[in-house]
Amino acid sequence: MPENAANWSRIRAGDVPGVVLAVDFYGTGRQEATFRHLCDLLPDPVEVWHAVPPTPDGDWSAATGAGHLHWWTKGLGTVLAGRPVRALIGYCAGSVFASALADVLGEREGTRPQVVLFNPGVPHVATLTRDFRGLIEGMDVLTDEERAGLLAEMTAIQEAHAPDALVPVAEQYASLYRKGCDLLCERLGVDALLGAELVTLLHSYLAYLTAALDVPPTPQWRTAASLTSREHRGADFTDTEHGFDVARADLLNSPQVAAALAALLREHEASR
């Protein structure tokens, strides 16, 4: 099998029948563990492919849930090569896409795959603000005063908008991020194209969040199992929740969480 395709990237090889599909977004300077960390801890030889988000073609705020789902489903033939999807796993806003992909595959194949979600939830301004704060704080080349100034502007933007006004807040955050990238490039003495590339990556993330907001939930989403960190208790995304005494940043790097996922996959296979 290829190591990656345009729409999916293999992050773990395995010889257990069936493929696990994972949906998350990383690459925006986040400090949280990813599904790659979780794969390193899995005790069973399952194969895992990770969704590669599309690059926005034009205005990121015009991204749709249907567009993102089509992007991922059209690339599955190469990934699966006739093998079944064993399960879908999703982190944070990726839980929306994992659940919706399970719906699509269930309609297409006649059997809906198992779904396991990690800190699931629909994106909102608080989600974006948390991640954006991490981006700014990670700009170590800037002075403390410059970072503090950007964070103060971010706080002012957040306070001026409603908690569900994700797109207008994101538009202003993106402009603020570009300002920070320009400062960074100036400080490093590098071409401004680097800043433009970083902003393009941010736009891909903003399109991902916007598209997640555009996916309507179905009753079947609640049948998934969710594994949550101590900051995420009682999010009410699924009917079954398993809580762990780990920080959000470490949820996908916890041996206990990896063991719980492996057990859920085994139990589901045994019940089929």
Structure, explained:
This is Thioesterase domain-containing protein. The chain folds into 2 domains: 8-122 and 214-271, Rossmann fold; 125-212, no CATH class. The mean pLDDT is 91. Strand 4 (85-91), helix 4 (94-109) and strand 5 (114-118) form a beta-alpha-beta unit. The protein is built from 9 helices and 7 strands. The chain has helices at residues 35-41, 65-73, 76-80, 94-109, 125-137, 144-159, 166-188, 193-213, 255-271, and strands at residues 8-12, 19-23, 47-51, 85-91, 114-118, 225-228, 240-243. The radius of gyration is 19 Å and the shape is globular. It has 272 residues and is α/β, with parallel strands linked by helices. Helix 2 packs across helix 8. Helix content is 47%, strand content 13%.
**For the record, what is the CATH homologous superfamily label of the largest domain?**
Alpha/Beta hydrolase fold, catalytic domain
The main sheet orders its strands as 1-3-2-4-5-6-7
Distance between the termini: 26 Å
Number of domains: 2
- Provide the β-strand percentage band: 5-15%
User: What helical percentage do the residues reach?
Assistant: 40-55%
What's the number of extended β-strand segments?
Answer: 7
Average pLDDT confidence is 91
CATH-defined fold name of the largest domain: Rossmann fold
Organism: Wenjunlia vitaminophila (Streptomyces vitaminophilus)
Protein name: Thioesterase domain-containing protein
List keywords for this structure.
single chain; 272 residues; alpha/beta; Rossmann fold
Q: In a nutshell, what does this entry contain?
A:
By secondary structure, the chain is of the alpha/beta class.
